[in-house]
Specification:
It is a single chain. The chain is an alpha/beta fold and 428 residues long. The protein has an eight-stranded mixed β-sheet, sandwiched between helices. It has a five-stranded mixed β-sheet with strand order 12-11-13-14-15. A two-stranded antiparallel ribbon has the order 5-6. The longest helix is centred in the middle third of the chain and has 32 residues. The radius of gyration is 24 Å and the shape is elongated. The structure holds nicotinamide-adenine-dinucleotide.
Amino acid sequence: MSDPAPDVAIVGLGRVGLPLALSFADRGLRVLGVDKDAERLDAIAAGRMPFQEDGGEELIARVHASGRLETSARVADAARAEAIVLTLGTPSFSHIEIDMRDIRSALDDLLPHLRPGHAIVLRSTVAPGTTEFVAGYLERQRGLRAGEDVFVAHAPERIAAGRFLEEIDTLPCIVGGVGAGSGERVARLFEAFAAPIVQTTPVQAELAKIWANILRYTQFALPNLLMMDCEQHGANVFEVIDLVNRDYPRGGLAQPGFTAGTCLRKDFAFSEERSNAPGMLLAVSRVNESVPNFLVQGIKRRVPDGTLNGRKVAVLGLAFKRDTDDERDSLAHKLVRLLERELADVAIHDPHVTTPTQPLDAALREADVVVVAANHSAFETPATREALATLPAAGCLLVDPWNCLGSGQVFAFADELALSPAPPSSAP
Ligand SMILES: NC(=O)c1ccc[n+]([C@@H]2O[C@H](COP(=O)([O-])OP(=O)(O)OC[C@H]3O[C@@H](n4cnc5c(N)ncnc54)[C@H](O)[C@@H]3O)[C@@H](O)[C@H]2O)c1
């Protein structure tokens, strides 16, 4: 073990924890990063980002050269630092309940090593009441009172992956401390960044984080449901959205698309698990989750003989959102599985992900159907449009819930695309 003691330990060097650890180190703090994933630790030790993050390569190179980030595979080592930030995953069980196993396991590893003065920060997204649970757990197991002996707070990560380096200095940092001194102690840690700090109660911090994501998840479910309604009524979803929004002060309907990812797909469950309106957010989830099946059924209605058996389907995009390499909880995977169950011959292209995929040309060549499953900016380029105009089979069906290709239709035929204007850019 090296000296001197780190200023802060970050437990869980994932998409949230690693950029945070690097950013603290870049601000001059001595940081200990902890992760159980040996491959990840090796990459970090070699000064390599294990995933894409804008500006991440330069940042890790700078921090690597500074020597201010050390790593460990043992959670107990985190207790060398006075401030311990938990950035572990908090998935949801399939029966709609937060899965706290990683948090519990880290707390249990830390328990014997905690001492008065320690600050424990929950940076992970958690269900309401979890921060108070952590404080209560420490008191029951070790007799350490939160706000007096140790400091416990929720400081939720609200940054979107890919925008970390910009947003860490601008997004208000919410701190919900337990007891008298916790908020102030944890605020001192985050003063390393330029963002304003907003103090509140632990449960309000928890609710603010999950409801920001519930808002987004619901905002995207509405145009997704409208897309399905439009199919039922023979209407064009993009035209209806334009009619809703155009010069209308109370408009603001979002665009349809694949709405998923590790956060949106599970954070609603942290409200739904003890809901006052059981099923409401579950319905939102079901709408977003049904988009791949909606597309497959729409394709089957349009292809000759209504079958995908033996037809080539090119899926463009495996990531869960635009221009990211993050495939976790992507609906593109669900789409691929559904297509395979129709005995389609599925070819996949994604320029960002680490999963091996085919080059664009190979995926598109002689395709009977092309589905845009992620709205990567690469798919909006003239080169992609050109490839789409020439490579697929005659009469190829283009399926584009994002309107990435500018056809202005969810289901269009390739020959219509050549006539369409330049595509708009779309959310989410
Ligand atoms: N990804 C995002 O964009 C984002 C944004 C805001 C909030 N969040 C929330 O932040 C939290 C972390 O998300 P993430 O995407 O960074 O997760 P992640 O899965 O990328 O990272 C978690 C890391 O913790 C490590 N880990 C797990 N158990 C461990 C243990 N016992 N000891 C040491 N390391 C351990 C894993 O190896 C992994 O590297 C979640 O609660 C998530 O909901 C994520």
